[in-house]
Amino acid sequence: MKKLEEYFKITSYTRKFKTRYRIGLFLVFVLIVVLINMCLNKKDRDENVFLKGLNLKLTLKVKVIRPTGNHGYGVILAEVIHSNTPRDYSATYKSEYTFCKIKDNNILFVSDYYVMEVNDIIVVNSEILKYWIYRKGKLISAYNLTNTTDVFLYRDIEKKKYLDFKTYGKYLLPEKQE
After folding, report:
1. Radius of gyration of the chain (CA)
2. pLDDT at site 77
3. CA-based diameter of the chain, in Å?
4. For 43-55, what is each residue's pLDDT tens digit?
5. Is residue 97 within 8 Å of residue 157, measured between CB atoms?
6. Which residues of the chain are modeled with pLDDT < 50?
7. Taking CA 49 as the corner, what is the angle to CA 46 and CA 51, rounded to the nearest 5 degrees?
8. Total-model pTM
9. Strand arrangement of the beta sheet that strand 106-112 belongs to
10. What's the CA gap between 113 and 73, in Å, rounded?
């Protein structure tokens, strides 16, 4: 009889230990998920602060789309129809992730391009983190403005020289005469 009582004591102790162990593992998992989420939210907040701080208000006409093969992102060369920035302007996040470059009447910017076509009109307002795509005067879509920090995307862009205006020679508009 004593053996049976000892067995049940050990078994109940083992069950309590296993239950506590599982609860502990679950709490550690929850903590890890919360920490990862906080880090990602901080990164998004930093990028949003950067974009809002640019205070860009642009109207553009797409001339060339250069896909990179990286998650739908590419570099777009467009004619600047309206801009609240100087004619020679560059916006770079953390000194390595170029959002856009403006030279004379031309702009190069990194964006998801899969909805865009040549001759589309793009209206950008970085204060509210939005951009709109118009085709033949009709709104095609509206998107949240984002800035990607994908290292592999920027390596590909750099290798192909997509953020160099010289790459687009015949498509560039002449300098505006004042």
Report:
1. 26
2. 92
3. 105
4. 566 777 888 888 8
5. no
6. 177-178
7. 110
8. 0.70
9. 88-93, 97-103, 106-112, 73-83, 57-70, 121-125, 130-135, 138-144
10. 6
